[in-house]
Amino acid sequence: MSEAPQQFVPGSIAPLAQSSKKRWELGQVRQICAGELTDGGQLTVASKDSSSWQLSLRSIEMAGSFPSAGISQVLTLVSGDFLQLDIDGQAQGLEPLRPLKIEATNPVSTSQPAQELLVLHLITQPDRVRGTVRIIELSKKREQHLFDGQLGVMLQGNGVLKLQGEEQKLNLRDTVIGGDTAEPTISGRGFMAVVSLDLP
Q1: What angle do CA 185, 97, 169 make, to 5 degrees?
Q2: Rounded CA separation 92/66 (Å)
């Protein structure tokens, strides 16, 4: 578990800066948050090492491979131009802000990147949680709602969180916890990843 807030209070913010950097196969990783999903579809804290989903930001600094058997993954390139992947013998390109779902039996291989890349990385246990990622363009005129089982990650630009009549500016890579009762909304200019976690 990371140092980021793990209570998942609807409308709360998990700043990326509160998560320490660790190594993974291809570079560095900062875990944003991880947990379980209740029968009612709310995000909840998991006991250590038993989370059914986890969301992180990972750098890709070299060619290599990472495991994929038994899990579902969604990769979204949030910084950099392109990454070539090999998924069970099939070539697949990862383009900026275009989430790619991966369900493979063999390790996923990557080409040598031309520059350091950053990917938003969602992992789910498919028998317990179904995860999707949408990239939405923020607007000052139309608010983006975040509901139960959703996380909003600020990827580019400027965003403002409105909660119970109060407004708070979002920093780059901040993650907002959604919730039906709190009804958090985000507006601004830029792009946000909306991560939705549902029961399978």
Answers
A1: 30
A2: 15
Residue recorded with tokens 């950097």: 21
Task: Note the pLDDT tens digit of each residue in 83-141.
Answer: 999 999 999 999 999 999 999 999 999 999 989 999 999 999 999 999 999 999 999 99
One-letter-per-residue 3-state SS of 132-154: EEEEEEECCCCCEECCCCEEEEE
Burial class of 142 by CB neighbour count within 10 A (0 to 12, 13 to 18, 19+): exposed
Domains and CATH numbers, the chain: 18-127 (2.60.120.10), 131-198 (2.60.120.10)
* Spatial separation of the C-alpha atoms in residues 183 and 121, rounded to whole Å: 25
- Residue corresponding to tokens 């700043």: 15
